[in-house]
Amino acid sequence: MNSPLDTHYAVPGKERGVQFFVRAGWILMLAGAGSFFLWASLAPLDQGIAVQGTVVVSGKRKAVQSLDGGVVSKILVSEGQLVKEGEPLFRLDQTQVQADVQSLGAQYRMAWASLARWQSERDNLDEVHFPAELIAAGQGQNPDPRLALVLEGQRQ
């Protein structure tokens, strides 16, 4: 007869010593470090790094440092080349600046549309009167589809 404490269903297992866990820890640590270094070597860097440089001017050293960071798109001089005052040394990539200008322009036009609606509400007008420049920006040769949606939304 089986007693309630009978453990015949327990399967005897292989006991693992400390050496197994040490080896497993090393394998996990090496796999993690290897994964990090693989990612670090393959991940694209899309940010410029702000660095300092020096320019030798007639035997005197002058420090050159950018006030704002940027990505250099083209270097116009080579090492050891003599340059004149005011001559450009490199060109910065304009992509980020152009995107910022477009974004700020869109924000400005959208704020202008909100102002026109608020003024119409203040004056108890039946419909919103947008400035002609704002309507032209929404319907001109290069219409801004977001502005057209904003103007339509402000009319409601």
UniProtKB/TrEMBL annotation:
The keyword Transmembrane applies. InterPro entries: MFP. The chain crosses the membrane at residues 20-40. Signal peptide: none annotated. It comes from the Bacteria. Keywords: Membrane, Transmembrane, Transmembrane helix. This is Type I secretion membrane fusion protein, HlyD. It comes from Pseudomonas syringae pv. actinidiae ICMP 18807.
